[in-house]
Amino acid sequence: MWSVVQWGALIPDEINLGTMYRLNTYPLIHTGFFHALLNALALTPLLERFEAEHGTLTSIALFVGPLSTFPAGIYLLIEKVILHSNTSVVGSSIWVFLLLGSEAIRTYKSNPHFSLGPYKIPTWTSPLFACVVLSILVSNVSFLGHLCAILIGYLFGLGYLKFLVPPEKILRWIEGKLNLLGRLPHYISVDQKTFGRYGVLPSSNNAANGNNGTPMNFLGTNQRLDDNSRRTYISENALLPGQVHAYFTGSEQNIFRGYKQELQTLLNEGRKAEDQEAEVEVTPAASNKVHSILQAAGLKVATQKYEYTSAGITHQGENIYGIIHAPRGDATEAIVLVAAWKTADDELNLKGVTLALTLARYFKRWSLWSKDIIFLFTPDSKTGTQAWIDAYHDLHPESVQPLPLKSGALQGAVVIEYPFEHHFQKLHIVYDGVNGQLPNLDLFNTAVAIAGGQMGIGANLQEMWEHNDSYEARLQTMMRGMTKQGLGYATGAHSSFMPYHIDAITLQPKGEGWEDEMALGRTIESMCRSLNNLLEHLHQSFFFYLLMHSNRFVSIGTYLPSAMLIAGNFTIMAIALWMRTGYYPESKPDTPAGEKSKSEKTSKTGAQKIEKAVKVNETALPERLMALPLTLVTGLHLLGLVPLWTFNNIFHQYFTTATYIFVVVDIVLPLFLAALLSNGLGVSKPIIPQQYHLIKSFALLLLGLSLSTLATLNFSLSFMIGLLCAPLSFIGRLQGPAALRYGVSSLGLVLLNLLSPPIVLLGVCWYTGVSVETVLTQAAFGWDVWGMWTQVVVWCVWWPAWLIGCVQLGSSIF
Amino acid sequence: MTTFGLLSLLLTLAVTLWSSTASASSDYHEQLFLQPLPQSSLLASFNFRSNTSQQAFDNQHFRYFPRALGQILQHVHTKELHLRFTTGRWDAESWGPRPWGGSKEGGTGVELWAWIDAPDDDEAFGKWIALTQSLSGLFCASLNFVDSTRTTRPVVSFEPTGDHQDVDGLHLLHGTLPGEVVCTENLTPFLKLLPCKGKAGISTLFDGHKLFDAAWQSMSVDMRPICTSDGDCVVQIEQTIDMVLDVERSKRPRSNPIPRPLSNELLACDTSKPYNSEDNCFPLEKGADAAWSISEVFGRTLTGVCPLTGSDGTQEHSVCLRVPHEKQVFITEGSTEIKKEDGFTRCFDPAPAQPFDLSIPEQTVDIPVPREEPILYAERTIVGHGQERGGMRIIFGNPSNTTAVDFILFESLPWFLRPYIHTLQATITGRDGIPTEIAASDLVTSTFYRPAIDRERGTQLEIALSVPAASTVTLTYDFEKAILRYTEYPPDANRGFNVAPAVIRILNVENSAPVYIRSTSLLLPLPTPDFSMPYNVIILTSTVIALAFGTVFNILVRRVVSVDEAAALGAQSLKGRLLGKLVAIRDRFRSKETKVE
C-alpha cells in the first residue's frame, strides 16, 4: 500500500538525488488528524502575520522553498552524519518553530530580558523553552528537528537569510500576469506588505528600567513597593468626586460665626460655676442650643440618652440628632454627618459642631438630596456614635435609649472635627474601624480626591504629616496602619459605624495654614454630593487594603499570603509532629533497655521472649496516647478565659497590679505544669515523649487554624501574633546531657518569657510611654462598648500557645 | 374624640362624593384647593371629576370619560379601578392629616387595585395581567412588572367604593411597584385623560418642573360606577393631583435655581445678640409664613376655566383657599371671591378665558387655621443587621387622649423576605414613656395571613389592631432573608430591594369615607454575591486546566507495553483479537516508524 507519509516524510536514509523532493514535502504531510489540527492551530496566527508582513507570494516562495529545505538540510546533516541514526520527521511544526525563532529575535531586539527574581533571562530563549516543554509534554516529538527550525528562524530573524527573498520585480510580474489581487480574496500584494511595521510593540518598562537593572534585584526601594502596590482609583463611577461646585461660602460664614459665638457664650457661662477640669465637656445649655438651632432650621430633631459602664468608669451622655428629609425622598437611604463635642484626641470640637450646624441649615435649602441627611451631635467620640448606631439598628443594650426618629439604610458617614481656632493646612483622614475593619476604599479615595483635587488642601493619613513618598515614609505609613488595625480599637467617632457595614471616615484639619472652616465645609459639601450620587451601597472597591500613601495601596491579594505563610508554618509543623508520633524513633532505644533490666532478673529465655515482643511491636504502628494531650491543650485554652475575664471586668485602678501578677504567673505556671507533667500529673505513669509531641502538635494546630482564619478578618493582628508566636514552632522538649539541658532550657524560658503577652504589653507601654492602666482601661472599654475582640485572640489563642511552648521547654528541666 | 379630617373641606367633599346620588348623566367638575402648611409649605390639591352614564359607557359613547382608558377597562371587565402614582413622604407631624383622608394617595411608587368581573380566580388574574400591561402602555409606567409575586388579593383592607350589582362575581387584585420613579412621562398621559388636557382651567398650572420638585406629590385615577336607588347608574372617573410645595424653593426663579448664600445685607440676623455685627450673624428664622402667589409658586398663571365645567348647573368653585379670613388675599380683576362661613375658607371663580392669579402677602394673623392632629401616626423601619436575618418594627402612635383607634394593617411583602409570624410582638408605651411588653394577641383582633411561595407569590398579611388612647404601640416581627439565584439579582443588586409600603386602613371613622395611611417604603439589603467572582473563578480554572491538561493528557494517552506483551496482544482470544483490531486501527493513524513533529 502506498503511504503518503512513507512517500513524503524526511527519512534520512531514504534521501538521495531522486528523493530530494522529501526536503520540501515533509512539512505538508502529517501523521494524523490531530497532528495536523494542532499544527494548523499553532501555525495560522504566526503565518498570517508573516504573510501580512512579507506578502503572500514571498511567503509561499519562502515556505515551500528554502525555509523547508534549510532546516531539513541541517537536520539531515546532524542526524545522519553526526548521530548516525535514522529518525524520520514530518509535519509543519517545523515552520511553527522557525517563525517562533524569528519572532523571538525581534522581541529580543526591542526587549532583551525578562526578569524572574534576580535573574535576567534573554527573551530569545523562549522558543527553546517552548521546544523543551513540548518535547516533555507530547510524545514522539522530534526535538532535534525543532531545534534546527529554531536555528534557521534565528538566522532569518537576524536578517542573514534576506537574500532568499525573490526579487520584487519578478513578484510584481507574476502578480500582474495572474491578476492575483483580483482573484484571491485575502491576497496580500507586494505593495501591501508592512515589513513588520506592526511587529512587537515597544514595551514601556524597558526604557524606564534601563539604568535601574531588574526591578526586583534589591530590597528597600520604592521600586519594589511600586511593584507590589497600586495607585488608588475611584471604582464606583457614580461618586464623581469633585465634579460639582461647592457653594458653601459668603454669608454662610457670618452665620457660622454667629452660631459659634452663641455656643461659646453658653459654654463659658456653664463653666464659670464648675471647675476648670471639665473644659472640654459640653454643657446642657449648649446642648439645648444645638437642639433649638436644628429645629429652627427645619430639621426633625430628637435626642437619645445613654450610659455605659466599663472597668468601673461610667460614661454617659446625650446624643442630639436632626434629620433633613430628602425632598421627594421616601426615607430609604441616608447619609450621616457626625460632630462630636469632644474629638478623638479629647479636645473641644467647638468649630466642628458649629460647622455641622451651619451645614445643616445650608443643606436644608437644597432640593437635590436623594438621601436623607442625618446630623448627629455626640458628647464624645468614643461612646456617642456607638450608642446611636446600635440603637439605630435596634441592637442597643438596656442602658441605651432607643431612637425616637429614624431614617433609611445608612450609606456613609463623615465625621467633622475642628478643635482649634486658627486656620489649617491639611486634612488628616482617619479611616480605621473597630477590629481592623476598614471603610470601602472608594470613600477614602473620594475624600482624597475632593480635598486634594477640588479644594487643593491635600490629604494626610496615619499621622504622617510629612510624607515625601519615599520608601521609609511609605513603609512607616503602612506600619502605622497595620498597628492600628491589629490593635483593633476605635480611632474616632467614625469607627463605630464600620461593624454595621456603613463606610465612615473622620476628617481632621491639621497644621497651620490658610484654609479656614469654610474650606472644610465645602469639602464636606462636596463629599455629601458625591455620596448623594450613589445608586448602590458602596461595594465596588476594596474593603481590605493597606494604604502606604494617600494615593497608593496594597490590595489583599498581595499582602494576605504573608500572614497566611506565617499561620501555615504552625499547621505544617503540627502535621509533621503528628506524623512523627506515628513512628517509634525515640521510644526504640528506651524500651528494650528498660525491659531488659527488668527481665534480666527472671531468665534468659524470658528476656528473649520480650525482645521478640518488642520486635513485633516495632513493625506495628504505635498507638497514639491522645487523652492527656487533648485534655491539657483544651484545658489550657479554656484557662485563657480567666485572664480574659479578669482584664475586662476588674476596676481600672487594679490593672497595673494585675499585669505584674500575671507576669509572675507566667513565669511560675509553665514550670509548675512541666513538673506536674514529668510526674504524670500524679495520677498516671510519667508521660512519654510521644505525648509531648502530641501536645505541641495540637497546640500548633489550633494556633495555625486560628491565625489563618484571623488573617482573613484582621490581617494585621494575625500577622503580629504570628510573628510573636514564630519561636513556638521551633522549641520543644530538649534532649541531651543534663547540664546542657538545664542551661539551654533556662535561657530559652527567659527568652520566651520576654515574648509573653503581659511582658510584650509592658514593653510596648514602656516604649510608647503610655501607662499600662490606660491601655488596659481602653481595652476593657473596647470590649464592653465597641465589641472589640483583640483580647480574645490574645488570651485564648496567643497565650495558651505560648504557655504550652513554655511547658515543653520547661519539661526538659525535670 | 375623632378629630376627623384636618382638611375638613376636602373630607366633606369626599363624603359628599361618597354618598352622592349623581343626578346628571354627564358632567364634569374641576377644583383646585390651596392650603398653606407649616414650614412654608403649600398644599395644592387638584381634583377633576366627570360622570358618564352607564349606558353611554357601555355603548362606547365617550365624552368626558377618556376613550383610551374606557376601552381598556371594558376589555378586561374592570368594574372599579384605582391607580396611584406617588413620590416623597407625607410629613404628618408638621402637616397634619393627609388630604382626602389618605384615600387618594398611594404608597411610594405606583399602586394599583381593581375589581375585575370574572368567573374564577385564574381568569381574574389573566384579566388583571392584561389590565396591567395595557395601563403600563397608557401611563408609561412599569406596571407590566406587576406579576404574580407582586399581586395580592386583600381581604379586608379595601372595599369597593362604587355601587356594584354583583359584588360576589368581582375579584379584587392589588399590586404595587415601590421602586417606580414617578416623573413627567407619567404626568403627560395623565393630563391627556382630562377633557381640557391642560389647555384651560386649573390643569394649566401643571408644570413638570414644579410638580416633581414638590416635597410630596400624588396622582390618582379612580373609576367606579355610582347608582341611584332607582337603578340609574353613572360611571365616574375622578383624577386628583395633590402636592406639597416648598414655597421658598418654588419661588426661586428658574434662571437661578441654586440656593446660593445670601448677600450679607439680605441676611435676617438677630440684632439682640451682643456679638451681632457685620460678620457675626445669628440667623433669625421667619415667624410668619412667607408671601406667595400662584404665578410665583407654579411658575405660571391659571388660564380661565375649562369651558366644560359645571354643565349641569351645580355651583362649584374652581379655586379654593384655606387661610383665615382676616388674611389679605389679592386676586386678579374680574374674578369673584366667596368667603365661607367657617372663617377659614374662601373660594374664587376666575373669569373665563382670562389669566387668574392669587397672591398672599406676608402677614401675621391672630387666629391661625387650627392645626388638626392625624388620627394615627405610623412609622415602619427595618431593624437588625446582617445578611441573614432582620426585623420589622412598626410604630403606631395614637395622639388622641380619649379614643382608641382600630385599624387594619396590610402588608404585602416580597417572597424573599420571609416573616416569622410567631415572633410578632407588641410593646405598648403610655405617655409616661415606660414600655410594657404585651402579647400581640391582646391588641390583634384578627389576622389574615397568606404565606409566600418562593418565586410565585409574596406574603400577604392583614392584621386588625387596636391602639389604646394616648399610647404608642410598637409591633415587631423577625424575618429571614432568602438567597436569590444568581440571575435573579437586578443590575443594582447592592442598592437593596424595595419593600412595598404598608397600608393602614382606619376603621372607626364615623362617616363612611375611608381613611388610609401608608408607611414609607423600605430598602431591604439582601446577601449579594460578589459578581466579579465568576470572572476570577474562570481565570483560576483556566490556569489550572492549562497546567494540568498537558501532563494528564500525556499520562492518559501513552501506553507503555513491553515487547512480549505486545506480541501477546495478538493472541487468539476474543479480547486479544479486539485489541489487535484496535492496535491496527491505531497504527493506521500513527506511523510507527515516523516521528511526529
Automatic annotation (TrEMBL), chain A:
Keywords: Membrane, Transmembrane, Transmembrane helix. The keyword Protease does not apply. It is found in: Membrane. It is a multi-pass membrane protein. This is Gaa1-domain-containing protein. GO terms for biological process: attachment of GPI anchor to protein. Residues 19-161 form the Peptidase S54 rhomboid domain. The lineage of its organism: Eukaryota, Fungi, Dikarya, Ascomycota, Pezizomycotina. GO terms for molecular function: serine-type endopeptidase activity. The chain crosses the membrane at residues 28-47, 59-77, 83-100, 121-138, 144-165, 556-579, 625-647, 659-678, 698-726, 747-769, 789-810. GO terms for cellular component: GPI-anchor transamidase complex. It holds the Pfam family Rhomboid. The keyword Transmembrane applies. Its main location: membrane.
Automatic annotation (TrEMBL), chain B:
The chain crosses the membrane at residues 535-557. GO terms for cellular component: GPI-anchor transamidase complex. Keywords: Membrane, Signal, Transmembrane, Transmembrane helix. The keyword Ligase does not apply. Residues 1-24 form the signal peptide. Pfam families: Gpi16 (PF04113). PANTHER family: GPI TRANSAMIDASE COMPONENT PIG-T, GPI TRANSAMIDASE COMPONENT PIG-T-RELATED. This is Gpi16 subunit, GPI transamidase component. It comes from Penicillium cosmopolitanum.
